[in-house]
Structure prediction request, 579 residues.
Amino acid sequence: MSRRAHRLAAGGGYGLLLGLGILVFGFPLYWMMRGALIDQATWTQVPLVWVPGADQVSLTAFTDIFASTQFRMGQVLLNTFTIAFMTMLCNVVFDCMAGFALAKMRVPGKTLVLAGLLLTLMVPFEGLMVPLYLVVTKMGLANTLPGIVLPGAASAFCIILMRQFFLSVPDELLEAAIVDGADWGQIFFRIALPLAAPAVATVAVITFLAGWESYIWPLLITDPHSKFDVLQKVLAQATMVSQSGSTDTEWPWLMAAALISTAPPLILFVTCQRFFIAGLTGGALKG
Amino acid sequence: MKGTGLRSRSETWTGVVFLLPGVGIIFVCVAIPILLAFALSFTHCSRFLTIQWAGLYNYARLITDPLALKSLINTLIYVVTFVPLNLALALAIALLLNRRFPGMRVIRSVYFVPVVLSMVVTVSIFRFLYDFNYGPLNAVLGAVGFEPVPWLDHQSYAMWAIVAMALWKSSAFFSIILLAALQDVPQSLHEAAKVDGAGPVMRFLHVTIPSLAPVMTAVIALSSIGAFRVFVPMFVLTKGGPAFSTRTMALHAYSTGFDQGALGQSSAVSFALLAIIVTATLILNKARRAGR
Prediction:
C-alpha cells in the first residue's frame, strides 16, 4: 500500500470507531427522548418504530405526569428541589467552615479529626444502610425532611477539598487581618470565603447533584407513597412496576420523568463544566 | 498561627464551633452506624430490636449460608469483569477523543452524556433497551436472524446485561480523567521517541502507558470500590434475580435487613463488605505509592 492509501485507511478506521462510539453513547439518550414523545401504542408497535413520524409525536406525557397520581410530578419536583437545595446549602456552610478550621486554625485534636475524615472516605453508604436507618429512626427523624437531608448534609470529601484549598491561602493575609483586630468570623467570611469562590462553587455543584440524584436513602427513610417522595424514588418505582409486563405504568410517562430528572444535571454540566470536572478529577486523584 | 493567650483561646473556641456541625453530622451518620453495625453483627437482632448474643454465628453464616456465599461470588464476578473492561474502554475512549479538529467538542459532549444521567435514569432507559418484545436490541438481533434474548429475565444473561450497562454508564466518566492525564503527557517525550525511530505502537507502550500509570491505578481503585458496593442496578432491574444470579453483597445486606428483619445477620454482611472495600483500598493505595 502506498503511504497515502495507508493514511486514508487509518483515518477511515478512526472515523468508523469514533462514529460507533457516538452511536453507542448517544443512542440511549435518543431512545429516552423518543420514548417520552410517542404514546404507549407507538411504543408497542411491531415492527419497532425507530423514528416516529411528526404525527406520532406529542408532548402530552409531560403534562400527564403532573396530573397522574403515580408521578405527582409537581409535588415530587418541589420535594426533590428542596432536598437538593438544602443539601447544597448545608454542605456549603458546614464543609467550608470545617475545611477552614482544619487548614488554618489551632484546634485540639485536629490531626485526629482529619485522619477520621480520611477513613470515612473509604466507607460505602451501601454498607451502612441498616445501622444508619436505625440511628436516624431512633432520632425520630423517619419520614421527615431533616431525616432525608441529614446524612448528606456534610461531606468528608468536600471538607477535605476545602481544606486543601484553604491551605494554599497564605498565612500572612490572615495574620494581617488579626493585627487589624478582625475576629475569626470576619476573617472567614470577609477574606477566606471570597478567595475560595471556585472551590465553593465546586462543592455547591457536587452536593446539589448528590441531593438531586439521591435515591436509596430517601427510599429507606420514607414510607411508600410518602408526601416527601423524590424524583429518583418515583422513577425507580415506576421502572420496577413496568417490569412485570403489565401496563401499570405508561412508558412515555417514565421517559418524560427521566428527561425532567436529567435537565438540572445537564444544565449544570453545560454551564459549570469547569467546576464539574474539577470535582470529578479532584475526587479521583486525591481521594 | 501565632497569637497571645487570649487570642488563641478564642481561636480554639471558634475552631471547635467551625468544626462541630460538619464533623458532628459525619460522626452521627458514619462513625456511629459503623460501630452499631459492628456491635449488632455479634447478635441475633430482630426488627423489634430484641438482642441476643450470637458470637461469631453471623460471620460463619457468610460462608455456610448458600445465598450469602452466592452473593459474595456474584459480587466478585461483577468486580472481576467490570474493573478491567472499564479501564480498557475508558482508555480507548480517551485515546479516541485525544485529537483536535473542528467538531471535536461536540463529539466529546456526546460521549460524556452518561456522566450527566443519574443511575436510576440510566437503569430505566436500559430497562427499555433490554425489553424482550419492544427493545431495540432484540429488534436488531431479529433483523439479522437471531432469536430475541431475555436479557434481564434469564440467569445466564442478567449479570452480563447489567455489567454492560454499568460499563456504558461509567467508562465515559473515567475517560474524562484519563483524557486530562493524556493531555498532560509532555509532547517532547513523543518527539524524542519519534527521533529514536519508535512507531505509534511502541510510543503508546513506552511513552503513553508509563505516563498514565498513576492515573490508571487511581481509575482501578475508584472503579473497584464502586463495583464492590454495586446496588441500584440490581435492585431496580432484577431485584437480585433471576434465581439470585444478580444478588450482590449490598443487595443481600439490604434484603436480610429490611425484608427479613434479621438485623444482626445483615450487619455482618455489611461489615464484611466494608472490610473487603477497606482492604482493597489500602492495597491499591499501596500499589499507587509503590508505582511513584
